[in-house]
Amino acid sequence: MRSLYRTIGRSELRDALALAAALAIVGVSFGALSTAAGVPPLMTLALSLLVFAGGSQFLVVAVAAAGGSPVAAVVGGLLLNARMLPYGLAMGGVIGDRMPARLLGAHILIDESTAFARARGDGPRARTAFWLSGTLAFVFWNCGAALGMLAGGAVPDPNVLGVDAAFPAALFALLLPSLGKADARRVALGAAAVALVATPFLPAGLPVLVGLLGLAVAGRPR
Amino acid sequence: MSWTALLALAAGTYLLRVTGVLLRGRVAMPDRVQRYLDLGATALLVALAATAALIQDGGFAGWARPAGVLVGVVLAWRRVPFVLVVALAAAGTAGLRWAGVP
């Protein structure tokens, strides 16, 4: 733990805090929305702590509010979260070497911690970046949700603050270093094109998964 | 919402996360497979960022959001610090919405 602490640079901490702060704002709106949808406080907190995947949390709350089937909510949520499996395959070695670290780290495997770690290669810096960004995201997201539950109707729409633009911008910024290689650039363009074209035809979550078809243009390694 | 549904989603999501993590640790992967796994993560993150930048509820998200994202991408390209990239992308979108752009 001490060696982990030592490798945290000030810029890493600052960057991870910026991302976590944006997550906290969305967390606040989740807490408020879930409460407004009539989800009991304990369940809202449990969703936030145990599922810890924003898109699927909003989805199940929306389905519950609309009186939809719980099975559809769970299936839809798992479809949104299916990308975690390939994330884990790519990140397993970065997260840790020992079982407890892997089991614990798996829970903070999210888009942000994956992108944050990958922007720093796959050595010790990537491991530090993963745990730092994942832990801060977990704390800020859940504190945000709790705050949103308390504030209820007083919470403004996060879109007014442009937070919905902050996340894709942050992901692109974190991905830029890995797009230096020609094969990664081809795959990225292919993935974005396939996902966008597929969007009108597929349920939420699947367009991102079919982005994997971008691997078809990976070509040979140099 | 029922506790059963909530716990099923939580367990299923954790299972998705931990399966990949444990597989990567257990099975020796040839370099070629590792390359595809790494490129696969890039593909998913780019697909996610692209759809998040342009799509809302299965349709076009409006101009304010992609314009803000574009501001962020250009700043990141010019090696502006990450904190500013995130803040100015949000500020760009918020400003456009304030000015009436959807």
Chain oligomer state = heterodimer
Beta percentage of chain A is: under 5%
Q: Largest chain interface and its two residue counts? A: A-B, 92 and 75 residues
Gap between N and C termini of chain A, in Å?
A: 37 Å
Number of H- or I-type helical stretches of chain A: 12
Shape of chain B: extended
The biggest beta sheet of chain B is recorded as: 2 strands, antiparallel
- Taking pLDDT < 50 over at least 5 consecutive residues as the criterion, the unreliable ranges of chain B are none
How many discrete structural domains of chain A?
2
* Spatial extent as radius of gyration of chain B: 19 Å
Q: What's the gyration radius of chain A in Å?
A: 18 Å
Overall 3D form of chain A: globular
Counting helices, strands and paired strands, the structural category of chain A is mainly alpha
Order of helices and strands of chain A: HHHHHHHHHHHH
Please bin the fraction of helical residues of chain B: over 70%
User: How much helix, percentage-wise, in residues of chain A?
Assistant: over 70%
Number of helices of chain B: 4
Give a structural overview:
The complex is a heterodimer of chains A (222) and B (102). Chain A is an all-alpha fold and 222 residues long. Chain A has helices spanning 2-6, 10-36, 41-51, 54-65, 70-81, 84-95, 99-107, 111-118, 124-151, 163-175, 182-198, 206-210. Chain A folds into two domains: 2-162, no CATH class; 181-222, no CATH class. The longest helix of chain A has 28 residues, at 124-151. Chain A is globular and about 55 Å long. The termini of chain A are far apart. In chain A, 51% of the residues are buried. Chain B is extended, with a radius of gyration of 19 Å. Chain B has a two-stranded antiparallel ribbon with strand order 1-2. In chain B, helix 3 packs antiparallel against helix 4. Chain B has two domains: 1-56; 62-102. The chains are: A mainly alpha (222), B mainly alpha (102). At the A-B interface, helix 2, helix 3, helix 4, helix 5 and helix 6 of A face helix 1, helix 2, strand 1, helix 3 and helix 4 of B.
